[in-house]
């Protein structure tokens, strides 16, 4: 599915200025479903889902180079969406508390890259992520060089209606 816009899509890969400090102290994030219903999600809520670990992940920061490899652990974004969303969906918008975001298509979640599935990570190298390290980060294991897909300090996950996601 291609998105056709007259203007640039702010949630497709784009460069951004690094933000070295947490934009807020709030450890929660908002989930918005296609029907408009929303709820607040905590790390404890994520811990209720199966935990998945992905090795050989890198943190790539605009202006700061890359670091790693790390092992990140958390909930697969696919498991998270399917746990909370009981209607057809086609994409997920994940936006940081500082406004940086990314759009993930259902196909990417149902057919993950060999590097590993996309995670809502809350652990790094067996330790809980601190607020300064992101607390909840969207990790895209296939990203190795441009920091345009990973989202630090997840503040919003919005599930978009469509028929490409929820399987019967």
List keywords for this structure.
single chain; mainly beta; Sulfite Oxidase, Chain A, domain 2; 5-stranded antiparallel beta sheet; disordered N terminus
Helix content bin: 10-25%
Order of helices and strands: EEHEEHEEHEEEE
Gyration radius over CA: 15 Å
Strand tally? 10
CATH-defined fold name:
Sulfite Oxidase, Chain A, domain 2
Spatially, the strands of the biggest sheet line up as: 2-1-10-5-6
- The top-level CATH class is Alpha Beta
- Determine the mean pLDDT: 83
For the sheet with most strands, the description reads: 5 strands, mixed
CATH superfamily: Oxidoreductase, molybdopterin-binding domain
As a percent range, the share of strand residues is 35-45%
Structurally, the number of domains stands at 1
Poorly predicted segments: 1-8
Q: By helix and strand content, what is the structural category?
A: mainly beta
- Put simply, the count of helices is 3
Measure the end-to-end span.
Answer: 20 Å
The CATH architecture is: Alpha-Beta Complex
* Overall shape: globular
In short:
With 168 residues, the chain is mainly beta. It has 3 helices and 10 strands; from the N terminus they run ββαββαββαββββ.
């Amino acid at each position: 599915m291609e998105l056709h816009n007259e203007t640039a899509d702010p949630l497709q890969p784009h460069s951004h200025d690094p933000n070295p400090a947490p934009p807020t102290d709030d450890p929660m994030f908002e989930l918005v479903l296609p029907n408009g219903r929303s709820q607040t999600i905590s790390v404890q809520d994520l811990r209720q889902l199966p935990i998945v670990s992905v090795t050989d992940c890198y943190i790539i920061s605009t202006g700061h180079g890359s670091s790693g490899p790390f092992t990140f652990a958390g909930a697969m974004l696919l498991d998270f969406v399917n746990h909370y969303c009981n209607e057809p969906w086609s994409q997920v918008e994940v936006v940081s508390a500082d406004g940086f975001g990314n759009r993930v298509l259902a196909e990417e979640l149902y057919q993950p890259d060999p590097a590993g599935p996309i995670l809502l990570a809350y652990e790094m190298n067996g330790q809980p992520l601190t607020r300064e390290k992101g607390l909840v980060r969207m990790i895209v294991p296939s990203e190795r060089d441009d920091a345009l897909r990973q989202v630090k300090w997840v503040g919003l996950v919005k599930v978009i209606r469509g028929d490409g996601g929820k399987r019967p």
